[in-house]
């Protein structure tokens, strides 16, 4: 779509650039007068009375008028009137100087041409013609003006025979030519202003888009010097654009970002763009940061001038993939667990039944009694393990209802204080964020099972006593957070990634299914369960659940 040139309007003429041009004319006039008037006096064909006094007075008048002109430019009102006033004053000053120094033959009469040129540049063709008419009128009236100046130098015969018609015609042609040039200057200025505005708008639009992208954008020139980093790239890489811009990538990027620097420089060196690559750098916290990266070449006239890189943090994507793989594995484990539990229970029921019958009918003593008690105790333990397997493998459908999580945790607090699994030396503290209602859609019983499992784990981690803190608050992302923090022995860093996996436990006699069941219930509610632990200081289990306005569940 083509754009027709916009006509020059009064608003365009009142733009900052047009006032700047008028200010330049004022300053140029002052410089020309300061240099040309003394030269004109020195080159005068004959001295005239009080020449230097007249010169000083003329310069003072021009200086004072220039100050008034500059004040008018600062006010920025009535540009056309200001131009007319300046041109009229210029014509009067030139006419007076010419009259004092000999009239039409004076060297200062040449300044009429400069005034006409100025009128054409500032006022275009109308201004040039009007200024030429004023200059021609004053030139024709010069003998009369000379008669008004008693101290004027006498007019010579040569000066009296000056071709007036030729001078008037010259001034008219000069006014038209200067006006035509002024038209072109104004038109060019208008086009440049429009182009500058368009470029500014495009630059602002592009900068706004880049600043609001969640994808990082980095550009370097042909020498590998950083040119641009958008805010997303700053946040992702942990560096500041102001400090990096103008530096080479080796200077701007710390060692933890070496894979990114090498990738971009490789693209610059090979002149081959790359798409959908993956690298791993380290964040400002020195944690692994998977990054999806694409690069492209910046070219001008078929010459490579730099590289632009677009990259994105893949941490959430990789976490989603990990969860998907984990869920697939857990589903397979669940199916296998159901079959194992079925077979175990088929064999366990006759064993436990037979043991009970023997205990009732036989009066065993000594070692035989101990062995029979061992059989009964192990049957109970295996039966509990089978029950856990079945609970893990046979997920009940979520019975969703609207509930108040703060109220449910308050009920849980009252119940857990009397839990027989709780050592008497364990203190329990609850912080429910002021007791305000926290609406949620979820399965009341299954969420209660989560809290019970987390509390049981905390009790088992503090056999010698300690403190269990249960906190309810709202996260920065709007999710509801429930935290169980104990002061137990903690979990070793190498064991922490495996905690929560089925059948993995660090407790003697544990099945490794309690936390796996709790994590699965939380995930089915659309939330996440995460652990933080420091050996010797304790463990924090954080459950993040979506709010009431979020669709929570998916069918089991």
Structural account:
The chain has 556 residues and is of the alpha+beta class. It has 4 domains: 10-195, no CATH class; 214-313, 2-Layer Sandwich (Beta-Lactamase); 318-393; 400-545, Histidine kinase-like ATPase, C-terminal domain (Heat Shock Protein 90, 2-Layer Sandwich), CATH 3.30.565.10. The chain is built from 17 helices and 12 strands. The protein has a 5-stranded antiparallel beta sheet with strand order 2-1-5-4-3. Strands 7-9-10-12-11 form a 5-stranded mixed beta sheet. A two-stranded antiparallel sheet has the order 6-8. The longest helix is centred in the middle third of the chain and has 49 residues, at 164-212. The two termini are 56 Å apart.
Order of helices and strands: HHHHHHHHEEHHHHEEEHHEHEEHEEHEE
Gap from first CA to last CA:
56 Å
Kindly give the count of domains: 4
Instruction: Sketch the major β-sheet.
Output: 5 strands, antiparallel
Q: Quote the beta fraction.
A: 15-25%
Helix content: 55-70%
Shape: rod-shaped
> What is the number of E strands?
12
Strand order of the largest sheet: 2-1-5-4-3
- Calculate the mean pLDDT score and round it: 77
Secondary structural class: alpha+beta
Radius of gyration: 46 Å
